Write a sequence for this structure.
């Protein structure tokens, strides 16, 4: 077990490091950062909501690239294809996790600060559509039979990736025509220097955590794939024995 | 020229088969009509309000009708092992896809043609904007739904819960197109959007159609050989 | 802010702040526990 033990050690260290950074980030966000003048203490939700939002826009790219890699390797190198597929599935799940957090915390924040649970502004609507796209990807994987679910899902991933910029443009145009209340004070609100430490610690912390769960889920998926391969192999071996 | 010949052959076949029984068109028509009636009962709109919402209701009715029809769009092919035969045939698979998509498009356009007068009657519609734009918006919007719908119908062919999966996959992907078609239609009906804005929506819809037609044509072969 | 005020449930703002942070921990925690459960149930590679 010499190769896996290095992975295990690194994984544990990374896990502990992410937790440590997140604890520092929590401390910064809740206890150290001065209370926001306009929003009061509710503004502290910012430090958990915004990193989740930003990270949820990165994982879809990983899913897309992994799906393309799968479609490329599918006939050329099945083992690499399998690995790419595991990565695609993992990235989609992590996207849904982060997007869910973004939507729910955003809604809770909106209710507290602006009095509304939801508004159909460009960012929120685009995030909701992103969530819907990747949930539909996960549903396809669940409902399709194991022989083809990987290819079908990879194809859907291409559709979803093509859709993301289209969604962004159309929702923005829609909201230019029919302006609606905007959460988060519009695009001009910048970061005050006093907010920087909490924001930086939290975004690094949640990014590290995101990488950790990505790798953990990937390892689990690879384990399952290898177990399936071994089962298939032993079934073939058994059938060869009886053929004698 | 040969490629288009293939497409036309598939198209002729689908039209001919549909003409014999007219199941699909009748089902779609009646279903769309029912949706219109349900919405009228639900909202009981006045003249001003009805213009605002009729664009949305039209497209929702067409969306439901299209999904119902697409659910069984490939059953004939499945029952007669046509897809396996296609894999062995030298003809390009995408021609089969385009033929079927165009056939479905024509069916939905027929439904729209019958539905439009019904709509005008039920909602006392009086188009305030340029009605000729509707002749552009309706086909563009329909193609957006049909091209992706036909593709996802194939995608879901050998999955369990096939009928459930089609709308689950189609709706998220189609949302930007739906937004465009509803906004453009409502803009024309109510004349609340000026021509530049309506044209932008139409351009976006056309762009969506182009992009997804290309994506579907390129990926159809992959889905056919998914095992 | 202090621990005392963080868990103060009297005002809507504080309840929502707590709810938002709790949501994050619950969602992330459930996901990682779900992965862990799958890991423990799956068979390791045979040596």
């Amino acid at each position: 077990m010499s190769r896996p033990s290095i992975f295990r050690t690194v994984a544990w260290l990374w896990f502990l490091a992410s937790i440590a950074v997140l604890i520092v980030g929590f401390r910064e966000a809740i206890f150290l950062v001065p209370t926001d003048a306009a929003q009061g203490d509710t503004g502290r939700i910012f430090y958990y909501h915004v990193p989740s939002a930003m990270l949820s826009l990165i994982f879809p790219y990983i899913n897309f690239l992994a799906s393309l890699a799968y479609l490329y390797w599918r006939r050329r190198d099945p083992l690499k294809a399998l690995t790419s597929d595991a990565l695609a599935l993992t990235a989609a799940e992590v996207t849904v996790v982060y997007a869910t957090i973004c939507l729910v915390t955003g809604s809770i924040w909106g209710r507290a600060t602006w009095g509304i649970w939801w508004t159909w502004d460009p960012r929120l609507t685009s995030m909701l559509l992103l969530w819907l796209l990747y949930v539909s990807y996960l549903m396809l994987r669940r409902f399709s039979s194991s022989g083809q679910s990987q290819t079908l899902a990879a194809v859907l991933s291409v559709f979803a990736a093509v859709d993301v910029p289209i969604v962004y443009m159309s929702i923005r145009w829609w909201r230019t025509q029919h302006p609606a209340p905007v959460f988060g004070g519009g695009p001009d609100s910048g970061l005050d220097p006093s907010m920087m430490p909490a924001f930086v610690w939290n975004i690094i912390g949640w990014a590290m955590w995101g990488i950790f769960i990505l790798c953990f889920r990937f390892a689990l998926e690879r384990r399952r794939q290898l177990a399936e391969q071994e089962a298939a192999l032993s079934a073939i071996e058994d059938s060869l024995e009886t053929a004698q | 020229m040969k490629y288009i010949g293939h497409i036309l052959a598939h198209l002729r076949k689908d039209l001919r088969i549909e003409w014999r029984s007219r199941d699909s068109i009748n089902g779609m028509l009646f279903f769309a009509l029912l949706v219109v009636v349900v919405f009228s009962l639900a909202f009981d709109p006045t003249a001003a309000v009805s213009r605002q919402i009729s664009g949305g209701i039209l497209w929702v009715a067409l969306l439901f009708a299209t999904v119902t029809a697409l659910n069984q769009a490939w059953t004939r092919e499945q029952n007669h092992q046509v897809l396996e035969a296609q894999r062995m045939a030298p003809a390009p698979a995408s021609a089969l896809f385009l033929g079927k998509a165009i056939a479905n498009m024509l069916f939905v356009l027929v439904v729209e043609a019958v539905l439009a007068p019904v709509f005008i009657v039920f909602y006392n519609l009086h188009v305030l904007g340029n009605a000729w734009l509707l002749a552009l918006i309706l086909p563009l919007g329909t193609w957006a739904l049909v091209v992706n719908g036909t593709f996802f119908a194939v995608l879901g062919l050998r999955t369990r819960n096939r009928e459930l999966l089609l709308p689950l996959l189609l709706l998220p992907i189609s949302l930007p197109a739906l937004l465009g078609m509803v906004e453009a239609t409502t803009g024309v009906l109510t004349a609340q959007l000026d021509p530049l804005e309506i044209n932008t929506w139409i351009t976006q819809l056309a762009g969506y159609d182009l992009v997804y037609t290309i994506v579907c044509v390129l990926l159809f072969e992959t889905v056919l050989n998914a095992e | 802010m202090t621990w005392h005020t963080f868990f103060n449930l009297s005002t809507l703002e504080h309840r929502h702040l707590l709810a938002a942070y709790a949501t994050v921990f619950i969602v992330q925690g459930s996901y990682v526990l779900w992965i862990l459960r799958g890991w423990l149930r799956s068979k390791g590679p045979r040596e």
Observations:
- Chain C has a mean pLDDT of 85.
- The first helix of chain C runs from residue 3 to 6.
- Chain C has two helices and no strands.
- The helical segments of chain C are 3-6, 12-41.
